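User: Round two. Same drill as before: sequence, then structure, for each protein.

Assistant: Same drill it is. First protein:
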Amino acid sequence: MLNRKQHLWHWLFPVLIAVILLSGPAAASSRTGKKVITLRFSTFVPPAHPATKLFQGFAREMSTVSQGRVKVEYYGTSSLGEAKEQYEITVEGLADLATTCCAYTGSRFPLALGVQLPLFTDSAEIGAQIIMELIRQGIFAREFADTVYLFPLATTPSRVFSNRKITKVEDFHGLRIFGGESVFIDICRQLGATPITISTPDVYMALQRRTIDAGIAPWTPGIAAWKWQEVARYAIDVPILSGWHCNVVMNKETWQRVPAAVREAWKPLFPKYAMKFAILYDRLDSIMKARCQKYPGCEVIEFPDREKHKLAEMMVPVWQKWVDDNGEEGRKFYRAYIKVMKKLGQKIWVRLPGLYE
């Protein structure tokens, strides 16, 4: 038989345990004054994409350096929104941060699309450094005013996969080339080629049936994803269209909601991951180019420097039109680009009269 005290303790003990278990974390949070903020990080890339591990690593590191104050949850495969919707869902707060590509909504980011100009750069690594410097100078501040720009995801330039041999600029004349960007339409006009707009999955069959002569793509998607080396006799190594300007952006209210100390701890991660992604894309392109060189029936042609100079001269009107269309902001962009390229020791192919110094 239990005495009165034992009976009371027997009844209270499980109640006390339940109270401790249920209130412990909340009490700890209250004592420290810290509340965990959960953020949703949205991307449109599938699990098999080479960049997925980097995106997940970035989310984990954001959580880690916050010292438990912020948890970043990763949502891939367009689970929060399609690729073209990523920027908008960030603005609206459906995602707290997301990966976006300016080309998907080009009319919204005309200045940011300048990084796609022909011969702009020959690698994602240099492209990332240029964009980060332009961001630092506030060149894109107006276009990204409704989000917080974290860092660029610079991609590699597009090469030409063709069924006609191209060893000089004149060989582009008369070609029917897949590519739909507005800049590429201007490029084709200068080269005397015809831009063909069809869906990307249809390009393989169009090259095979010779209803188009060529398509443009970076080495990695062209070889690994779309397998154009199987239906194109030549791959011409010339950055006819430079890399896409993709990025990671954050909702402005979310940014302000995060403690200032955490935001400061995050800032070193942004250039770090910008370069990690760029180096990954360049490495993959190098691997895919080597694979293409070994593929029977597809010859890789290195476009000679003398022909690149001729191409650069032909592209002056393309660059000039883009600069003029963007007014004073376009001129600031070009001048800043020249300074960064010189600082990085990079060759500048397209020199605009009156603006190149």
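Second protein:
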Amino acid sequence: MAKRDYYEVLGVAKNATADEIKKAYRKLAIENHPDRNPGDKAAEERFKEATEAYEVLSDQTKRDAYDNYGFAGVNNAGGAQGYSAAYRDFSDIFSGGGFEDIFSSIFGGGGFRSQQSSSRASNQGQSFRYNVEVELKDILTECKKDITYNRQVPCESCNGTGSSSGKPSRKICPQCNGTGYVRQSSAFFSMQRPCPQCGGEGRIIDDPCPKCHGSGLMRKQQKIRVNIRPGIQDGTDIILQGMGNAGTNGGPYGDLYVRVNVRQDKFYVRQNDDLFVQIPISVTQAALGLSVNVPLLDGTTEKVEIPAGIQDGKMVRVKGKGMPHYRGYGNGDLYVKFRLMVPKRLNAKAKALMTELSQALGEEESPRPMSFEED
């Protein structure tokens, strides 16, 4: 198969900058790397093709030769010899821009760590989320929820030091010789990863605490009461600072994100801070314009006047009877949608009265069609 133009392979213009070339290659390498596509020969070939193109175009001398003479000018530049030259280390092409995290998720490591100092670095503890469910009526006023969860706290036995003596006692990690990382080869790549024995610190506990096994942390059940403000929106996170896991080596605690999920109500629909409810009315109520007592979400009722002659599906707005504003003061509105309920059966008296009413209204036996605009 004939080779494709290197610029075409990377999807860049012939006047592309070095940064544009690097960015294009990074994208292709991530998508097609053999470790991410095991057994996919097509992806492997695309990876090799892109690597060969990058190895030439990333070197200005080789790029000039390719621009002037095509493949003949770089006969010995591409191919297998180029892979190791293009990627002796991830720290160049994949450093910055979040690619460390991307490759960590692809290859299962957290590479790109520089050599660790001999002292332990303190790190903030992990933050995590806890979901709570509330009813719509619960958040008409301030709602309190008691939650129980497990989190990591400093080990009581060693005071969080990880050492059985209670005092930090460390030695150089024998697996990485104190560098904090190990090098691993994969396909055409050679990359460094945090040392699995010391976790990238370069040193290990000399006398690990038997209770926490040298981690300095232990699991503990935590009970707290969460205050949920009125009118909170579904899916909102309440951040409780310092209620997550403890940090390592004296680092700060992480946070707890309490996500509030508001269950849908059977009768009331919420839109922002407004509420919508459907209320059935009779033909006479609609025609005469009587009033009805509309039940509210808090269990009380509100007297609502029905406009005389109201049609099925029309709404009446009741100000200030919706949900409380989560931020600020006041409430949204309540929209009452009146649904006209036609009786399915009539007794003799009701039938006689309805017949008399029909005659009094002069109802037509042959009504004309009605346009949708008239609805």
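Confidence is low (pLDDT under 50) at residues 77-119.

User: Perfect.
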